[in-house]
Amino acid sequence: MISNRKEEHIRIAENEKVESEHNFWDDIKIIHRAMPEVNFDEIDLSVDFLGKKIGAPMIISSMTGGVEVAKKINRNLAAAAEKFNIPMGVGSMRAAVEKKELADSFSVINDFNIPVRFANIGAPQLIDQAKPAFRDADIDYVMDLIHADFLIIHFNFLQEMIQPEGDRNGKGVKKRVSEIASSYPVIVKETGNGFSREDALELKDAGVRAIDVGGLGGTSFAAIEYYRALKANDEEKANSGLSFWNWGIPSPAAIKYCDVGIPVIGSGGLRTGLDLAKALMLGAVAGGFARTLLRSADDSQESIFKRVSFILRDLKIAMFLTGQTRPYGLRRVKYFVLEPLRSWMEAV
Asked: Is 271 among the annotated ligand-binding positions?
């Protein structure tokens, strides 16, 4: 069941229209500097990320694992992470816990020298559902499996509500996150619906190391599950998928909402290095890319290398045209915000 679901997710993400109706990164307009006084060849993309030096403020976000095709995808993504010296996460590792024979679809990344690795488990699985909750031994297992530097706990409760096999209980997650964060280096991540200011403050109190906003604007998992529900002839879940297709907090606004004194990662709808530059302007320490990379990673190593190089070149061009030689200098760049994002940003 897990393998079939994960492969369905990959194929739907590659072949169907699953984006939210509006990408909010387009609502940010940057003030151009006609005289940047910068040598393009002297621009340095390297940054310090949570105490580790990386080649650029770009993250290969958690995408997949637990199915045979994911092994190829993760291998190609890991090769890119090594080549460009950038962090990488893997998809939900519940599959590796439940079926040890699927572990190599995750551990394949160990063949590469990746500067920062993220293990990944789902917040709904931290508490008892139809299946028992993750235990500390399970967390130890997934961390050791890929030699992870950080543990991502991903929040996907909307997706769970649309999934035919989704988990429906959210009571007790906050307490469990706090317990885990006292023993493991935890990063929390939303999967397309963003975090509110209230969420961010509670997560900071819980002791998480960083917040990956995963806001509205890119892939809608309500949309992905809509297609799965259609295939399963589940009219009720398909209806909910349509209703909540565009649910959530826009990614740029979520970066602002989550500015509570711990590092923020911008993700959700990032397509280009220009989008990444905008996330850094808003205060993110890095930007996470997922579906933008998926098809290339499923194609070939050469294809994913090309895609990442295009993103990083566009980031450098944005820096050049705003007079910046280091990524975090983008926080000084002037910009303005159009509707509908403007109202979201003003609601902070």
From this structure: yes
- Tell whether 11 is in a known binding site: no
The answer to the question of whether 332 is labelled as a binding residue is: no
Please, which residues bridge with residue 211 across strands? Answer: 188, 264
Q: Which domains does the chain have, with CATH numbers?
A: 2-346 (3.20.20.70)
- Say whether 168 counts as a known binding-site residue: no
Helices (H), the chain: 2-15, 68-84, 94-98, 104-107, 136-145, 157-162, 173-181, 197-206, 221-231, 235-243, 251-257, 273-281, 291-299, 301-320, 341-346
pLDDT in tens, 4-62: 777 888 889 888 888 999 999 999 999 999 999 999 999 999 999 999 999 999 999 99
**Is position 343 annotated in a ligand binding site?**
no
Are the C-beta atoms of residues 92 and 66 closer than 8 Å to each other?
Answer: yes
| Residue 62 labelled as part of a binding site | yes
